[in-house]
Amino acid sequence: MKKLITTTLFALFLLAACAPAVTPQTPEPAKVTPAQTVEGCFITAHEFPRQDIPIPVTLLVNAPGVEGLSAYWRDGTFLGTWPTGNLFPSTMVHAASPLVDGSNATPLIFLGGNEDGTTSLRVSQGGEVRTLKDFPREVTITGLTGVPGQAWIAYSTVEPGADGSSLHSSIYLGEYQSIAGSAAVLTADSAEARILLPVAIHRDVNNTPDGIWYTYSLWGIGGDSLTDPRAGLYYLKLSTGESMEFLGMGCQFSSLSTGQNWAALTSEGVLHITELHSGVTNNIRPLPGNDRFAHVFISPGEGMLAWVEGKGWEYDGTLETTLRTATIDGAIISEFPVSAFAGPSGLGNEIAILPLGWLMPENEVLLVAVYSVSTGRASLVYVKIYEREITPLVSGTFAGFAYP
Length: 404
Fold this sequence. Notes:
Blueprint: H1 2-16, E1 32-38, E2 41-46, E3 58-62, E4 69-73, E5 78-82, E6 93-95, E7 108-113, E8 119-125, E9 128-135, E10 140-146, E11 152-160, E12 167-175, E13 184-190, E14 194-203, E15 209-218, E16 230-237, E17 243-247, E18 252-256, E19 262-267, E20 270-275, E21 281-284, E22 292-298, E23 304-311, E24 320-327, E25 332-337, H2 342-345, E26 351-358, E27 365-372, E28 378-384, E29 389-395, E30 397-402
Antiparallel strand pairs: 1-2, 3-4, 3-30, 4-5, 6-7, 7-8, 8-9, 10-11, 11-12, 12-13, 14-15, 15-16, 16-17, 18-19, 19-20, 20-21, 22-23, 23-24, 24-25, 26-27, 27-28, 28-29
């Protein structure tokens, strides 16, 4: 069960970190800043069109005892349910239009499981589920992201390489209606079990995807809720097929801001927040005794941070974690030990926490998932970072956000 919870936490973290921007702005002149090294982490700054910033309005949740995926307004009001016919909780999903007429009218793209152990990319809309693409048994879907409220999605796969001693990973991009016929926009073969993962889709002034942010992860690695084996951050220009390196493979990538202007990474036990256009980097050190960071989220206004840090390991019962928040320049706002979530979540003391994103325009309210390590139960809570309040929201496993 602990292995299942750890796998779910990692999958949900990848999903929550991948929300791209809503409306592009006018491009700026191309410029490259010389690379710099931050404690073993190679950073290169580039100029590129900035993106506007979305605020999620709806939470997508695998509610206990409910078949399908449920939608809740960000204040916890129930909006409706999509049928999925899934054999396991949905953790890779994308709402492909705004939720204006209720959840059932919105096409929900999700990864579905079949009885024979294979998987399919599916869409649920109007109470019906249909298959977009079936995958062979040897192919595993490793990531899914999309443009908020639009039909564009990007997903990644991994399968054994042709030589039998390596892994072949690919990233695909397209509108969900035609994604089955889309060719891979990027592929990689690795004998070191490194695989491609899409992070976000970038769009030009015509609202058309012109690039994909991506990173690399280690396939098959174990760990606990503070383990994140992703490294590097790259940008693929779709028009030329050229990849630009922003963070080198020595950087442990954590997240990209929804505005796609800042990246969070860790190196040598320090949390770094880098402005990608300039390379300006702010550094935050952990609490005394802590040596691990994970699940860093930059607010939509790009002025605040939330992350989990700790020490010890979940597998031997020594893991101790704390949720911390700060301004983008590193001034600490508030700190919440994991024990503070035991009561509000109703899940007791043997729990893990995962920040999921910011929910209010003023960027002062944080959504956090709480998981029982022993039972697998989960719930979502609000954290008001200035008032230092934790409030129960809904029970269930987080699957993603939807946008207006």
